[in-house]
Write a structure and sequence with these properties.
Blueprint lengths: L5 H50 L7 H11 L6 E8 L11 E9 L8 E4 L6 E3 L7 E4 L4 E5 L8 E6 L7 E6 L5 E3 L1
Antiparallel strand pairs: 1-2, 1-6, 2-3, 2-4, 5-7, 7-8, 8-9
């Protein structure tokens, strides 16, 4: 009779265990980096949508949204639609908020030209970073990146995403004053 000895079986089991010991952490690391990269691409896509809406002069189409802006945001004054923007949570307050949204940007006639933001709920563009990844935002000079309609200055900035893994993954998405979006 020909068969396997106990030592041969133990060697095969040890080799299989070593392969799994190397493969499983590598796969988990790969999955984490892919989830992180997808989160960064989602933020970049939201910025692109805001830029594209502003470039095509798409005003909020819902009468309800316009009425709510005019009554709630401008205290019964008519809002001047400026464009679209993306609101980034304030990381300085350490709130743990990982939700960002596409916003309608407007000013009120008596507001001194200060930009105000209204979530574009009718567009349904509110997203959250994956909680399991422990990704945090760091906004540049402002918590808002604004793409106004034609002939108005862009409120540029940058967003840095970083997770708390070892080593940490970091992506920075920048918007130039001319509206170019780039990711490093």
């Amino acid at each position: 009779m020909r068969g396997f000895t106990l030592i041969e079986l133990l060697i095969v089991i040890v080799i299989i265990g070593m392969v799994f010991g190397i493969a499983v952490p590598s796969f988990q690391s790969y999955r984490s980096s892919q989830t992180f990269n997808q989160a960064a691409m989602d933020v970049e896509e939201t910025l692109s949508v805001a830029r594209n809406y502003a470039a095509s002069n798409v005003y909020p189409s819902s009468t309800d949204a316009q009425n709510e802006l005019n009554s709630g945001g401008c205290l019964s004054q008519t809002a001047d639609f400026v464009g679209y923007g993306v609101s980034i949570p304030d990381s300085l307050n350490n709130t743990g908020n990982t939700t960002y949204s596409l916003d309608i940007v407007f000013t009120c006639p008596n507001g001194g030209g200060v930009y105000e933001y209204y979530p574009a709920d009718k567009i349904k563009w509110v997203k959250s970073l994956p909680i399991s990844q422990n990704i945090s935002f760091t906004a540049g000079s402002s918590n808002h990146i604004v793409f106004p309609f034609l002939n108005k200055p862009i409120l540029s900035g940058s967003v840095t995403l970083q997770n708390n893994f070892t080593p940490p993954l970091t992506k920075t998405i920048s918007v130039s004053p001319s509206g170019v979006i780039s990711m490093n």
